[in-house]
Amino acid sequence: MSTAAAHVGTGRRADRRQRPPDSDPAATAATQTSSGPLTAADRDLLVKVRQAGLWEMPVGEYAATRAKSQRVKEVGRQIMNEHAKLDLMTRQTARKLGVALPDEPNADQQSWMAQLAAESGPAFDRDYANLLRAAHGKVFSTLAAVRAGTRNSEIRKFAGEGMNFVMRHMTYLESTGLVDHDQLPEPPAPSPATPRAVAR
To answer: How many whole angstroms separate alpha carbon 142 and alpha carbon 128?
Structure first.
């Protein structure tokens, strides 16, 4: 298993400076807004997308000078530029809904940034593609789950647009030919089939 996949797969440790949303009863309660109830999951989505941009924009800049592959350099620039647009959308949505956003990546993301800052050439290319592809897969799942169940129209709109960004980014990263799909999490097991009624 590559270093990149190992870090993403294990989720090394929680950032002790940030308590999970469900550790504070006030944070778990839904609040009423003009666009519908806003839940802890809705707020957490905005935080996660904001933090994704806070590390993926700087490492996109790293790609310009550290990557060997021209395609990785192009992908780094595309993701960096699109994350700037997504970050603006995230901040605007959070402002409308009164959600406080972090100003720095979480502990895992900071460790990935440090790892990539110390690499260059083929090692950078491989770890850049795999770290970002695994991270995008996680945030895509969160976006999809929140979009499927949120009662807030602003969050529905944000999550839908966010999924479009993240889907494009996964496709860009896969276009490098460096993503090790065997190291990505297994797809969820299918639900047991509902027994069909038997005609009598």
So the answer is: 21
Q: Residue 22: which of 4, 47, 44 has the closest Cα? A: 44
Q: What is the DSSP letter of 101?
A: -
User: What pairs with residue 38 in β-bridges?
Assistant: 31
- Quickly count: other Cβ atoms within 10 Å of residue 116's Cβ: 23
Contact by Cβ (8 Å): 132, 58: no
* Other Cβ atoms closer than 10 A to 189: 6
Two structure tokens written together for 102: 């972090």
> How does DSSP assign 3-32, residue by residue?
HHHHHHHHT----TTS--GGGSHHHHS-EE
Q: What is the pTM of this model?
A: 0.81
Parts of the chain with a pLDDT under 50: 1, 3, 5-23
